[in-house]
Inverse folding.
């Protein structure tokens, strides 16, 4: 297998993933984005650099 650069490995978008999920027959697709918030910073002070930034994307889907 040929090695790839970082830019070649990470050029797929969230929309690409959602289209693949839809194309695989999943329905009721819902996307939930979680951002760094004040609660996170209170519990983990060094995480202040993540305040307001997207940290987790969860996709929910059903097969029928």
């Amino acid at each position: 297998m040929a090695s790839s650069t970082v830019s070649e490995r990470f050029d797929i978008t969230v929309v690409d993933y959602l289209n693949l999920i839809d194309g695989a027959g999943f329905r009721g697709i819902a996307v939930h984005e979680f951002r760094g918030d004040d609660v996170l910073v209170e519990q983990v002070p060094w995480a202040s650099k993540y305040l307001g930034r997207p940290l987790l994307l969860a996709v929910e889907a059903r097969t029928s």
User: Anything to note?
Assistant: Residues 13-62 form one domain. The helical segments are 6-9, 14-23, 38-43.
